[in-house]
Amino acid sequence: MASARAMIERRRSSRVLIRIPVKVLSKGAFGTPLDTPAEAIAVSRYGALIRTPYSPDLGARIEVLNGLSQETQEFRVIRISDAKEDGQYELGVETLYPTHNFWGIQFPDESRA
């Protein structure tokens, strides 16, 4: 297993612990649209950790609606935790098309110009 230091060095950008209300938009069984309230609990320029009552398939593409900016972005599910006691899952997601500031925050490793 990789050390914590090696994992940090592999990251493309810093991760910020934050709480941002989001909605996970995807297709459920039989292609029915799903609109699931959720919360981003850690974000980076390239991904996020999202708490949601919905558990998509690993590798699934989902859209995330940022509840603060009302912008949407497409992500791929790269990790799914087992359900917690409260029925919530934690989804590790990576963005498919990075934008400059989807989350509306300045990351610690960005230079202030």
Short account of what is shown:
By secondary structure, this protein is mainly β. 6% of the residues lie in helices and 46% in strands.
Give the end-to-end Cα distance, rounded to a whole number of Å.
38 Å
User: Into which percentage range does the β-strand content fall?
Assistant: over 45%
The structure class reads mainly beta
Low-confidence stretches: none
Report the CATH architecture of the domain at 19-95: Beta Barrel
Number of separate strands: 6
The CATH class assignment of the domain at 19-95 is Mainly Beta
Under CATH, the topology of the domain at 19-95 is which? Thrombin, subunit H
Please specify the SSE layout and strand pairing:
Blueprint: H1 4-10, E1 16-27, E2 33-44, E3 47-52, E4 61-66, E5 72-80, E6 89-95
Antiparallel strand pairs: 1-2, 1-4, 2-3, 3-6, 4-5, 5-6
How would you describe what is shown here?
This protein has 113 residues and is mainly beta. It has a domain at 19-95: Beta Barrel (Thrombin, subunit H). 6% of the residues lie in helices and 46% in strands. The protein starts with a helix and ends in an 18-residue tail after the last strand. The relative contact order is 0.22.
